[in-house]
Design a protein that fits this description.
The chain is of the alpha+beta class and 399 residues long. The protein folds into three domains: 4-79, Orthogonal Bundle (Multidrug-efflux Transporter Regulator, Chain: A, Domain 2), CATH 1.10.1660; 84-178, no CATH class; 243-398, Alpha-Beta Plaits (2-Layer Sandwich), CATH 3.30.70.1230. It has 17 helices and 13 strands. The chain has helices at 7-14, 18-26, 40-53, 58-67, 89-96, 100-109, 126-129, 132-137, 142-171, 173-177, 182-197, 200-231, 253-260, 262-282, 302-315, 343-354, 364-367; strands at residues 4-5, 37-38, 84-88, 120-122, 243-250, 285-290, 294-299, 324-331, 334-336, 339-341, 360-363, 376-383, 392-398. The chain has a seven-stranded mixed β-sheet with strand order 6-7-5-8-11-13-12. Helix 1 packs across helix 2 and helix 14 (262-282) packs antiparallel against helix 15. The protein starts with a strand and ends with a strand. The relative contact order is 0.06.
């Protein structure tokens, strides 16, 4: 039958031997019936081989299947193999005139295993790899290309890792509470949620990238319009002053974690993330990254940074969050791979550490860049900051 495989066919497709197929059949892992196997057993055989490489013996797997505690149904997808092209990595390297080592380095930068020269390239990899000559042909150095793909790879890896974590702890949990065993709960979650959602994760990632890219592309285009008008002598390009770095932390978060537990602490971190996103958007800023019990902001206008900081310290308590303490500084910064670095950023972080609950401390460099509007700055005095050679004069911001 077209949907059934012989012992020899199954061994060939699974990449094992006939003896190996017979062993798995005796253990009850493969499903021999009337002298043939269902096509799904190709995936089962592959998965068992992978599990054995990870240190699990097939006999234990067979015993768990026989007892009903383990179902290989949900594991079959892990044995699927993406289509391979008819070109090895070495052949593709020669075809697109990109050094083999560069292609291998690209995979590593993406966070993927380093492929061998004679390894057939996946069909889905080809559009990305064959586009590289355009990038390098434009004069982009290899190091700059690797920096970009490393950022994309790390971002996608974190989303993929979180998706599995979220599915286990959030989607499967209601099924476990019904009294289903672990494997049963997983299968029910896949059947009732995972299958129905389909590829929504991939679709959401693409959609969000387009939405975020639209904003930054518009800003980038606007910068070029300003440059063109300035070069034509039509409209001078506005001078851009120093930008601001802000660090905000919640006071007593560690104590809260110890006393109330990790679940409460996780809820606090989520509520903080939602709040700071709202505040950043309302003051023309951006959240650079969340830091568990804190956040790193970036603002083009230091005055906006101070106003946003004052709003944050006022908003946390009504949201049921611990009080916040904040440090603001302004000056030159280095932007790289989605983050900001440099002395300005370091001082902002150190100032935040010196601020007390409900306080917004501002570095002297930032005060030179702002005319107080809606707030006032009161000098606290010179402060010795950790890792900073000279004392920094700090001011406290008030409404």
């Amino acid at each position: 039958m077209a949907d059934r495989l012989t012992e020899e066919e199954l061994a060939e497709r699974a990449g094992t031997t006939v003896e190996g197929i017979r062993r798995l059949t005796e253990l009850g892992i493969l499903r021999l019936e009337d002298g043939s196997f269902p096509r799904g057993d190709v995936m089962r055989a592959r998965v068992v081989a992978e599990l054995e490489r990870k240190g699990m013996d097939a006999a234990s797997l067979g015993a768990a299947v026989a007892s009903g505690h383990l179902s290989l149904g949900y594991l079959e997808s892990a044995g699927r193999r993406f289509p391979r092209s008819d070109r090895t990595l070495a052949q593709l390297s020669e075809e697109i005139d990109i050094p083999l080592e560069t292609l291998q380095d690209m995979y590593v930068a993406f966070g993927l295993p380093r492929p061998h020269a004679d390894e057939p390239v996946r069909e889905e990899d080809l559009p990305v790899l064959t586009a590289l000559p355009v990038l390098f042909g434009a004069g982009v150095p290899k190091g700059d290309a690797l920096r970009a793909v490393r950022l994309w790879g790390e971002s996608a890896r974190r989303v993929a890792q979180f998706q599995s974590h979220y599915f286990h702890h959030t989607i499967e949990e209601p099924f476990r509470r019904r009294g289903l065993r672990d494997n049963e709960a997983f299968e029910a979650a896949i059947r009732e949620v995972g299958v129905r959602l389909g590829h929504s994760g991939e679709q959401m990632l693409g959609w969000l990238f387009r939405r975020h890219a639209e904003r930054f592309l518009t800003e980038h285009q606007f910068d070029h319009v300003e440059a063109a008008l300035d070069e034509a002598g039509i409209r001078p390009r506005p001078s851009r002053g120093a930008e601001a770095s802000v660090f905000a932390d919640l006071t007593g978060y560690t104590t809260l974690t110890e006393e109330a537990g990790d679940e409460v602490a996780a809820g606090v971190a989520l509520a903080l993330a939602q709040l700071v996103t709202e505040i950043a958007a309302g003051h023309r800023g951006e959240v650079v990254k969340m830091l568990g019990d804190g956040v790193h902001f970036h603002f083009r206008d230091p005055a906006d940074a101070i106003r946003a900081s004052l709003e944050l310290v006022e908003a946390v308590r009504p949201r049921g969050l611990p009080p916040a303490h904040i440090g603001v500084n302004a000056g030159p910064m280095i932007y790289d791979e989605g983050d900001y670095f440099g002395r300005t950023v370091n001082i902002a972080a150190r100032i935040a550490a010196r601020a007390g609950a409900d306080q917004v401390f501002v570095g002297e460099d930032a005060t030179r860049e702002v005319t107080p509007d809606g707030f006032q700055l009161v000098e606290v005095g010179p402060v010795q900051l950790k890792g900073i050679a000279e004392p920094v004069t700090v001011y406290e911001a008030h409404r």
